[in-house]
Amino acid sequence: WKAARDLIRMRSAAITHFQGNGDLSKGNFFAGKVHDSDNFSVMMLLDLNALARTITDLSAEFPDHFLHTFAAKANPVRKVLSEVGSHGMGVECASRGELLQALASGVAPEKIVFDSPAKTYSEIELALTKGVSLNVDNLQELERVQELVQKTNYNPKTAKNLIGLRINPQIGQGALKGFSTGTSTSKFGIAIEDYAEEIRTALTSSPWLQMLHCHVGSQGCDFSLMTSGIRKVVDLALRINEEVGEKRITTIDIGGGLPVNFASDQVLPTFKQYANTLRKAVPELFDGQFSVITEFGRAICAKAGFTLMQVEYTKQSGGKNFAVVQAGTDLFIRTIYHPDKWPLRTTLLDSSGEKKVSSGPTKLYDIAGPCCLGMDVVAFDRELPEVNPNDYIVLHDTGAYYHASFSYYNSRNPPVFIGFKENENSGIDFELLCNIRTVDDTVDYFAM
Question: Quick one: signal sequence residues (predicted)?
Answer without folding.
Answer: none
